[in-house]
TrEMBL record:
Bilayer-crossing regions: none
Presence of keyword S-adenosyl-L-methionine: no
HTH lysR-type domain ranges (all copies): 1-58
InterPro entries (UniProt xref): HTH-type_LysR_regulators (IPR050950), LysR_HTH_N (IPR000847), LysR_subst-bd (IPR005119), WH-like_DNA-bd_sf (IPR036388), WH_DNA-bd_sf (IPR036390)
Source species of the chain: Salibacterium halotolerans
Top-level taxonomic group: Bacteria
PROSITE patterns: HTH_LYSR
Protein name: DNA-binding transcriptional regulator, LysR family
GO CC annotations on file: cytosol
Length: 278
């Protein structure tokens, strides 16, 4: 028996649903059910009555809940009180490092978050997490990874960015076909954005136009100088006004991404998620 088993039991009992408890705890439903079953085997009696409508506590399950819940919550509170000086080594991509984390880092108590690694492709952060090189990261478009805890963080769409003097600048909205008529200003070929634009070109039956590969931080500057079209996420577009650049919505939002928060353990993940949701 361990504290995680008890935490799973208490959350399932409170929510009266394995599915809801699994969502709250950032674990899969089968993993939670397995831990509850192990606890029942250890104790020697059933904790829940399971029906098609959900779960409810047995008489012995209710007594265990009443005895354990106050004690475990007090223990968690004591543990959290000792975590204020803990440093969390965080991994990020360049856009999040500049336009997401500055708003939320101070709210993600009780941790002292340090942006330790910034990678053009957030998938490169997964090996660092697995090896213990970082404690947490935000990963694009990968909801689960074996051995790590994760939860959905937010959805992001991309805008086209062009010079105010560009042919497209006077339009209220552009299509991806419109954008592909011009030189593409893109991050390195290994990045998700570069790959997505090439895939869209293939789907549209276009030959990929000339591409200028640039570091993320240089994209908007080159767009302002009229070198071509680039694509920037809404988390950036909503935060800045850049002289000489027009941000244009793209029809049907063909460039999107889902960001997922990862951590080595569920308690760290839960506290970070609470901070980022504030």
């Amino acid at each position: 028996m361990n504290l995680q088993m008890l935490e799973y039991f208490l959350t399932a009992a409170k929510e009266k649903s394995i599915t809801k408890a699994a969502d709250i705890l950032f674990v899969s439903q089968p993993a939670l059910s397995k831990q509850v079953s192990k606890l029942e085997e250890t104790l020697g009696f059933p904790l829940f009555i399971r029906t098609s409508k959900g779960i409810s506590l047995t008489h012995k399950g209710q007594k265990l809940y009443d005895d354990v819940e106050p004690t475990l919550r007090k223990l968690q509170s004591e543990l959290y009180s000792h975590m204020h000086d803990r440093e969390i080594r965080m991994g990020s991509d360049p856009f999040l490092a500049s336009y997401f984390f500055p708003d939320y880092i101070e709210q993600a108590n009780p941790f002292n978050i340090k942006l330790t690694y910034v990678k053009d492709d957030s998938l490169e952060l997964l090996p660092l997490l697995e090896s213990g090189g970082i404690d947490a990261a935000v990963i694009q478009d990968v909801a689960r990874h074996k051995g790590l805890q994760s939860t959905f963080l937010f959805h992001d769409t991309f805008f086209a960015a062009v010079s105010s003097n560009h042919d497209l600048a006077q339009q209220h909205m552009v299509s991806i076909s419109d954008c592909l008529l011009y030189t593409q200003l893109l991050p390195p070929a290994s990045t998700p954005l570069y790959k997505r634009i090439h895939l869209l070109a293939e789907e549209q039956g276009y030959t990929v136009p000339p591409v200028i590969e640039l570091p993320y931080h240089a994209l908007i500057g080159f767009a302002a100088q009229g070198y071509g079209v680039t694509y920037l996420p809404s988390i950036m577009v909503k935060k800045i006004q850049y002289k000489g650049v027009e941000f244009l919505p793209i029809e049907n939002n063909p460039i999107q991404r889902e960001m997922h928060l990862y951590a080595l353990d569920s308690s760290t993940l839960k506290i970070l998620k609470t901070g980022f949701d504030t």
